[in-house]
């Protein structure tokens, strides 16, 4: 791993950078598991509302099936050097029951409103309980920036 030139960030800097990425990124890797079918990972579009990650998937998808059975999930932004990992529990909202402000913000960000599509969609909300952020080996120590739902900086 290339570590030359990496300046170790303080927790507050890591939090600021993570919040910025959560606000600007489009995709997140969603890892779920099912007791009978095992693990599953898929990229989904997401919206960060300042407190939670909102995603949307077909109500018949493997992700939807898994989070209904086992709500614990791991989310990862798609950069293997500037890592941001979130863990939490998924809360599911059928497309006809999702809070309007979340659905409208999602539609505004992506230009796509699953509520008007044919078929059923499931909005998945994850409030992180743990967040880890690091850039390269020098930042492995202190990579936890949220613990038990509380930001540490």
Automatic annotation (TrEMBL):
Gene Ontology MF, one: coenzyme F420 binding
Coiled-coil ranges from the UniProt annotation: none
Cellular component terms per the entry's GO annotation: cytosol
A UniProt-annotated Pfam family: PNPOx_N
Residue ranges occupied by any Pyridoxamine 5'-phosphate oxidase N-terminal domain in the UniProt entry: 24-134
Keywords from the UniProt entry: Oxidoreductase
Protein name (Swiss-Prot/TrEMBL): Pyridoxamine 5'-phosphate oxidase N-terminal domain-containing protein
Native source species: Streptomyces phaeofaciens
